[in-house]
Amino acid sequence: MPFGAHEAMEVHEILNEKICMIDHLQTYSDQATDPTLIDLISRHRNHAIRAYNELVAYTHDMTAVTPIEVQFSQVTSPGGIQYGLRNPAPQSPMDVQLGQFYDAQIARSVLLAHKNSAKNHMAASLECADPYVRQMLLNGATACNYQAYEVFEYMNARGLYQVPTMSDHTAKTFLHAYQTR
């Protein structure tokens, strides 16, 4: 097997992360009550299983997979996002005696898992010499990016992820300091 040491270790870490994500998504799906959230988690879990199986298959038999770049379509336009703070609810750790996650907590956990997985996939891809492993890890980063955004949309629509804003004048002053060359 012609994998380099960094490559093998990075793939090992990503596969461990995928197993954890797949297991957590099943737990979240079992405990969620909102059908939309359950569907979202189920789709994300199925995608994670396919990605895990693809990477495992390639590490066992390098002819098993020829990855292609993954493309996702986003249906939301920037106009669909709710901006501004609307009395955000206080946040605190869960009372461990409850033993049950609630939908907002589940959505937040799934969002954070996808954000971290996207970062980890991207960082791992930078250590890979094999172009197919590299592409599979890039695909994983892209998939997690889009899935994180889907969770953000779910949360934003329900007021669970509010987007702070600043005055238009401040934003323009801040960003218009950059000029084309």
Automatic annotation (TrEMBL):
<dbReference type="InterPro" id="IPR012347">
    <property type="entry name" value="Ferritin-like"/>
</dbReference>
<comment type="similarity">
    <text>Belongs to the CotF family.</text>
</comment>
<dbReference type="InterPro" id="IPR012851">
    <property type="entry name" value="Spore_coat_CotF-like"/>
</dbReference>
<keyword id="KW-0167">Capsid protein</keyword>
<dbReference type="Pfam" id="PF07875">
    <property type="entry name" value="Coat_F"/>
</dbReference>
<protein>
    <submittedName>
        <fullName>Spore coat protein</fullName>
    </submittedName>
</protein>
<keyword id="KW-0946">Virion</keyword>
<keyword id="KW-0749">Sporulation</keyword>
